[in-house]
Structures are given as structure tokens and as C-alpha cells.
Amino acid sequence: MTRALCVTPPPSPDQPPIDSLSRVQILAAIGITALILLLIARLWLWLDPISLLPLHLSLIDGLLGLGLGAAITLASALAYQLWPAYRRSADVYLQLVLSPLTAIDVLWLGILPGLSEELLFRGVMLPAIGLTGFGVVISSLCFGVLHLSSLEQWPYGIWATVIGLVLGMSALITGNLLVPLLAHIVTNLMSSLVWKLRQS
């Protein structure tokens, strides 16, 4: 999942400088991370042969996923405006990850994490723990931890946990992995593309 819609200000004095990564390094990291998450999901299914949360092609659920993605993107933009700690956390991430990428590269940033994270957290982990509120909470906490790159990024870890709850509830209510999958991809794409457009 990507961070909020924003225009990145100059780094604040209380933030340590971060070494820039190249476009190739960022794209490689996206691909490797997606592959690792898919392998974890496959290993989990091998060790515990549970039924995956089904993915049904449905126009209504597809529209619901697209709408949910747009709503999450707007909520992220609002959190960026109203929560300074989240804004600082988002700025660090956006500058580091999105700056080297082209607009076409952002497609990979939207699709690969969306597919791999949803397959693991909502497709495998949620049914394995249980299709209940408890399962949604535990899988969302794990989702939040995945997005906690350092202790200084704690606001984004909290935000990712909240979004994990929303995505998990959408999976639980609809019984269709398509809804959180589309919502996640749309959120990543919209947030990233708007940021790139504002920078240019």
C-alpha cells in the first residue's frame, strides 16, 4: 500500500537524510518483496491446507472494490492534512520510493504489492485464523507490522493497520477477495500517480 496524496516539502531538520535508491533498485525491491509474500502464502497453504478466500468476478463487487479504493485514497489524503506525524512518515516514504520511478513504473507499485499482500493477508491468513472479527484484527495487525519499516515510521504502521481492518472487513462481508484486491491496487495507483503528477 502506498502513502497519502501530497506534495513533498523539503526534509525537516529532525529527519535524518535517507540515501536515495535508483529506479532499478526500487523496482527490484517491489518484485522481490511480492515474490517473498507469494512464497509465504504458498508455504502456508502447504503446511496448513485451508480453503483460500474465493475470488469471484462480479460487477457489483468489482465496483465496490473500486469505490473502496477511492474512499481509502481520500481518507489517506485527509489523514495527511490533519495528522502531522503521518504526514512526516508519508513524506519520507514518497520521496524515497516514488521519486526515481516513472509514471509507467507506478503500475508495478500498484499491482504487485496489491496482489501479493491481499493474497497473503486476506486470501490465506484471514481464512486460516478464522473468518471472524478476531481473524480480521490479527491479520490487520500483521499487515500493519509489514508496513512498519522503522520505529520512526510508526504513524504509517498504525495507518496501515486501520486500512488492513477496512480491507479485512470488506473481505469478510462480501466473501470475495476481489473487493480488497481491487481496493488495494486502486489505492496504490491513485496515491502514487497523483503524487507523481504534482511533482512534475
TrEMBL record:
Name of a matching Pfam family: Rce1-like
Any one Gene Ontology molecular-function term assigned to this protein's record: endopeptidase activity
BP-aspect Gene Ontology terms: CAAX-box protein maturation
Membrane-traversing stretches: 26-47, 59-80, 92-112, 124-146, 158-183
UniProt keyword Membrane present: yes
Every CAAX prenyl protease 2/Lysostaphin resistance protein A-like domain range: 102-190
InterPro entries in alphabetical order: Rce1/LyrA-like_dom (IPR003675)
Keyword match Transmembrane: yes
Keywords for the protein's UniProt record, in alphabetical order: Membrane, Transmembrane, Transmembrane helix
Name assigned to this protein: CAAX prenyl protease 2/Lysostaphin resistance protein A-like domain-containing protein
